[in-house]
Write a structure and sequence with these properties.
46% of the residues lie in helices and 15% in strands. It has a seven-stranded parallel beta sheet. Strands 7-8 form a two-stranded antiparallel ribbon. Helix 5 crosses helix 6 and helix 8 (175-182) packs across helix 9. The protein has a single domain, classed as Homocysteine-binding-like domain (TIM Barrel), CATH 3.20.20. With 290 residues, the chain is of the alpha/beta class. The longest helix has 24 residues, at 266-289. It is globular, with a radius of gyration of 18 Å. It is built from eleven helices and nine strands.
Length: 290
């Protein structure tokens, strides 16, 4: 399945200023938010994420929006559902809290459980077909979040970690350690997203594929490289064609949900979709010959 690309990159293209809460636009500019899933579906996405990455109570509190948690998440799911109709699945996006769990921080596993049960409930009320816990760095936080989601509904659930320190997450988790834990959780698909750069993503994919069970549904959503400034504008250094080449590599490693994260645009997704369509056709032809 072809996933979507970045939400934040697209919102910035549409005028969201740096430092503003992206989820607030679900209530104030739903017309602009709706353009994003619609553009990705037109580019070839089979599933799209909601604009709710920071929609948990901890992150919304920092923006002074915690009282709108339910509204933000319900709206985020409904916007995406209405934008794509029956053309794609809508996956409710849930990012990390940004805080540490005890003993490194003040959050308890019980609080994390409650935080994600709360957000998941609102996303499902809004009509999300599935949920994803994405860009996590801590396995402890992720385990508690999975427990929280599953406590309120037996819904299709994905999880991805961000290996943004090369071959480890910010909390020191390696791909091998991640696969060992994620394989035992009640997840329908797992893998990685975001990360350091495309070369690191390819290495992470090799590691994940080598340790994952043969029947695991694997997810790859890497960044479009690294950002840099050109004439006062942020440009990401991986082209659509380069992303398509990476997607082919992921597919050969048996990743089955492939898209992009930061910096990835509908142009990148279109190139990925076209490359993977040709890949599937070649695979079918080879099967017939065999």
């Amino acid at each position: 399945m072809i996933a979507d690309g970045a939400t934040g990159t697209m919102l910035q293209r549409l005028g969201l200023s740096g430092g503003r809460c992206a989820e607030e636009w679900n209530l104030k500019r739903p017309d602009l938010v709706a353009q994003i899933p619609r553009a990705y579906v037109n580019a070839g996405s089979d599933l799209v994420y909601t604009n709710t990455f920071g929609g948990n109570r901890v992150r919304l509190a920092r923006a002074g929006l915690s009282e709108y948690l339910r509204d933000v998440n319900i709206a985020g799911a409904r916007i995406a559902k209405e934008a794509v109709g029956e053309k794609a699945l809508v996956v409710g996006s849930m990012g990390p809290t940004g805080e540490f769990i005890e003993p490194l921080g003040t959050l308890t596993a019980s609080e994390v459980h409650s935080i994600y049960a709360e957000q998941a409930s609102a996303l499902l009320e809004g009509g999300a077909d599935a949920l994803v816990l994405e860009t996590f760095a801590s396995l402890d936080e992720l385990i508690a979040a999975v427990d929280g989601v599953k406590s309120i509904a037996d819904v299709p659930l994905f999880a991805t970690l961000s290996f943004d320190m090369g071959m480890r997450t910010m909390m020191g988790v390696s791909p091998r350690e991640a696969v060992k834990v994620l394989s035992d959780l009640p997840l329908d698909a797992f893998g990685f997203n975001c990360g350091a750069d495309i070369d690191s993503a390819l290495q992470v994919a090799e590691e994940v594929a080598s340790y994952a069970p043969n029947d695991a549904v694997l997810i790859a959503k890497p960044n479009a490289g690294k950002p840099h400034m050109v004439s006062g504008e942020i440009v990401w250094d991986v082209t659509p064609q380069q992303m398509a080449e990476a997607a082919l590599h992921f597919a050969k490693l048996r990743f089955r949900i492939i898209g992009g994260c930061c910096g990835t645009t509908p142009e990148h997704i279109r190139a990925i979709a076209e490359a993977l369509k040709r890949f599937r056709e070649t695979e079918r032809a080879n099967d017939e010959l065999r």
